[in-house]
Amino acid sequence: MKDVVIIGGGPGGLTAGIYAVRSGLDVVLYERGALGGSVLNAEKVENYPGFPGGISGVELIGRMEEHARQVGLSVEYNEVHEVTPNNGCFLLRTRDGEVLTRTVVIATGTGPRPLGVEGEERLRGRGVSYCAVCDGAFFRDQPVAVVGGGDAAVEEAHYLARFASKVYLVHPRESIRRLRLNRKRIEENPKIEVIPNTEVTGIKGDKAVEGLVLKNRETGQTWDLQVKGMFVYVGIKPNSYLVEKLVDLDDRGFIITDERMRTSWPGIFAAGDVRRTPLRQIATAVADGAVAAIWAEKHIATLAC
Ligand SMILES: Cc1cc2nc3c(=O)[nH]c(=O)nc-3n(C[C@H](O)[C@H](O)[C@H](O)COP(=O)(O)OP(=O)(O)OC[C@H]3O[C@@H](n4cnc5c(N)ncnc54)[C@H](O)[C@@H]3O)c2cc1C
User: Is 182 in the pocket of ligand 1 (CB under 6 A)?
Assistant: First the structure.
């Protein structure tokens, strides 16, 4: 029986691990992919204290991992498939077997929200991407489209312009004037063309993206745009599926916690981007992880299991 199982190896999970181990608890952290979560997509982090001038997401997470391992955190590359209450404790079904634990910290972060158009699922990884930093270099000297209306879309269009021959920013609104960040850089970048007031209604191609079907939201006119890649930035969705039937979620599926990171189910804690929070950043995920671990320890002291 573990004291704490932490699900997710981003900044929230790693920090929960450091605090829980240092509290003398028996802890394991499960990560289904690469340690680091969303931070791995951050080319440069310029707002996390302690790194004047900034640090790459990969390097920052490398340091967090080193720190966690140095204090003795056990990290396993494993995916959790199910969390089931078990006499006041929990039984977790993972890819590699089952584990019993007194508490669970859900630090599973968020994933990209899909656009929801025909062809998107089929061509995912074959030209459809949700991460410019991960996949941008595959599109050297080729035309690509970025789809989305927020600052993230604008930022990624700018990043992709380093590699691509042309970047079309397919924007749902009339202009990008209302955007806060990077607007000027976009307007001054000759490789970027904003296609305003437009939505994607389909993706062309069988084995790889060959183009997009676009539709003007005002006139209804449709046309084809020839691109080799489509980068989607239409928002995020929380990875709360493991506990969606156990704990209270908000209307977008984010886990609701109190200020001690307790969910509505005693013994289940949530930390970082997966919870309802006014700010999703590394600094806030780290803070949540620390709080969750400390209150997990207090909860364990009350248990009979
Ligand atoms: C492109 C980009 C740039 C960013 N830049 C910045 C920045 O400059 N500054 C800043 O402060 N923030 C930045 N952020 C936000 C920051 O990355 C997040 O706020 C932070 O990573 C949240 O940490 P987390 O631990 O909650 O979740 P995540 O970092 O998302 O980690 C969650 C982890 O859980 C794992 N997981 C999910 N489900 C399971 C499961 N069932 N079993 C096992 N493991 C599972 C995932 O694989 C993932 O590794 C950026 C985000 C992006 C996408």
Answer: no
